[in-house]
Design brief:
This protein has 234 residues and is mainly alpha-helical. The chain contains 16 helices and no strands.
Length: 234
């Protein structure tokens, strides 16, 4: 299976309306985080459909052509193919392949739909690799920092919170809204498993919490409790 055929399949689903929506949604304006990204206008279900249809018959070098493509949806399709390959039992090679091409995981949706299922799952089962997430959390690259956060969801799923909370705390001073949101999402996921763990983290770090992080973290709380946390009353 060639990358050209897959790109043609994706183009057959593209619409101008969706392209404009994607450009607005992913902030492609001057100075915004996706300023230099390009979109063709394909919806996520269609990207997943194409990835599922072709991932078994495509060589790694053809996947690389997709992953390094300038068009966002093409890169996303290649990365979803790696998720499919990983979940089909090709764990070690896909993990290494993903890390080798990590510079192409360069938008929040590309991170969020792939990192937990490859990097997170692999490191959860090979915890000697855990220092890699702490290394990413110290990166100057926005997407590597988000990868560090979102990868810990594989740990949270197994009720193992320490790596997630440690990375969250380390990144509380970060200035980017996408990091604030990711930490809040992390804390909300922990809350689903263990109310007390999230509450304790919020109480201990309240003065350093970005407001966006706090609002995301408390979404699952009862309304009266949310109001108290917003006021810093515990």
């Amino acid at each position: 299976m060639s990358s050209d055929k897959i790109i043609s399949q994706l183009k057959s689903f593209a619409t101008e309306q969706r392209r404009q929506t994607n450009e607005w949604f992913f902030k492609t304006g001057k100075g915004e985080y996706s300023e230099f990204d390009q979109f063709m206008g394909v919806r996520m279900p269609q990207i997943r459909q194409v990835a599922k249809q072709y991932f078994k018959g495509i060589a790694d070098d053809e996947i690389d052509k997709l992953i390094h493509h300038p068009i966002h949806e093409v890169r996303h399709c290649g990365l979803i193919m790696l998720v499919n390959k990983y979940q089909s039992g090709d764990g070690v090679s896909v993990f290494k392949h993903y890390l080798k091409n990590i510079n192409s995981v360069n938008n929040w949706d590309l991170v969020d739909t792939t990192t937990p299922h490859i990097v997170g799952d692999y490191i959860y089962h090979h915890q000697d690799q855990l220092p890699l997430l702490f290394e990413f959390s110290k990166s100057n690259d926005l997407w590597e920092k988000r990868i560090a956060i979102v990868a810990t969801f594989a740990f949270i799923k197994q009720s193992e919170f320490e790596p997630a909370l440690k990375i969250a705390k380390a990144l509380l001073a970060d200035t980017h809204d996408l990091i604030h949101k990711a930490i809040g999402w992390l804390l909300r996921e922990v809350y689903k498993k263990d109310h007390q763990a999230t509450q304790l983290f919020l109480q201990e770090n309240y003065k350093q919490l970005p407001r966006t992080t706090l609002r995301y973290a408390i979404e699952r709380m009862a309304e009266n409790q949310r109001l108290l946390y917003l006021k810093g009353k515990f």
